[in-house]
Amino acid sequence: GAVVSQHPSRVICKSGTSVKIECRSLDFQATTMFWYRQFPKQSLMLMATSNEGSKATYEQGVEKDKFLINHASLTLSTLTVTSAHPEDSSFYICSASARSGTDTQYFGPGTRLTVL
Amino acid sequence: AQSVTQPDIHITVSEGASLELRCNYSYGATPYLFWYVQSPGQGLQLLLKYFSGDTLVQGIKGFEAEFKRSQSSFNLRKPSVHWSDAAEYFCAVGGTGTASKLTFGTGTRLQVTL
């Protein structure tokens, strides 16, 4: 149980284009989903927290207009990187907390974004 | 503010040897503590968690961790390491509620020699 998927697993795009990453909780309803960014050989940096049906809460220093987050249902959240640039290249990981309130985050497998 | 320190960036152990990965945390209230493992290019898998109760927590893959409030530590242990345990290990601290943020340590890379 508690499986989280992400799609795509890898994406390469040209500078200036937008990329959408999907995060789905497959076997549970996720009240809250989190988006992280991980640079090579570094830890996870929380970008934003999203609750179903409401606006995401962004961490300090994260541009909300560049990283658009939508959490339209209890099983799906999307992260759109708008007008991507090479410095946005990174590993993006989502996680989800179950509605049951166990306070445990279950992580997706991550998406490797490369912006050329 | 909450924080997590993993003092060891890289650890190498021989297969079959015991393992202890250190984690120290700073948190203003009773912490929720987690250990996750990440294989290269993959997401994070939960090894174990501590919310309350018995301070010795058993997890998957033969791992255990002990919560020591007096030392603000939550060290991860395994009595006999397998080559497949080679990965990056992250300790994390959070609070109550499903919307609680997790703060991660910088990770410890475990290498296992045969």
The value of Rg of chain A in angstroms is 13 Å
DSSP strand (E) fraction of chain A?
over 45%
Please estimate the helix content of chain B: under 10%
Q: What do the pLDDT scores of chain B average to?
A: 91
Number of strands of chain A: 11
Walkthrough of the structure:
The complex is a heterodimer of chains A (116) and B (114). Chain A is mainly β and 116 residues long. Helices cover 0% and strands 55% of the residues of chain A. Chain A contains no helices and eleven strands. In chain A, strands 2, 4, 5, 6, 9, 10 and 11 form a seven-stranded mixed sheet that branches. Chain A is globular and about 40 Å long. The model of chain A has no long low-confidence stretch (mean pLDDT 91). Chain B is mainly beta and 114 residues long. Chain B has no helices and twelve strands. Chain B has strands spanning 3-5, 10-14, 19-21, 24-26, 32-38, 44-50, 56-58, 64-68, 73-78, 87-94, 103-104, 108-113. In chain B, the strands form three sheets. In chain B, strands 2, 5, 6, 10, 11 and 12 form a six-stranded mixed sheet that branches. In chain B, strands 3-9-8-7 form a four-stranded antiparallel sheet, with no helix packed on it. A two-stranded antiparallel sheet of chain B has the order 1-4. In chain B, strand 10 (87-94) and strand 11 (103-104) form a beta hairpin. Chain B is globular. The termini of chain B are far apart. The chains are: A mainly beta (116), B mainly beta (114). The A-B interface holds A 4, 6, 31-32, 34, 42-44, 46, 49, 51, 91, 93, 95, 97-99, 101-110, 112 and B 32, 34, 36, 41-46, 49, 51, 90, 94-107.
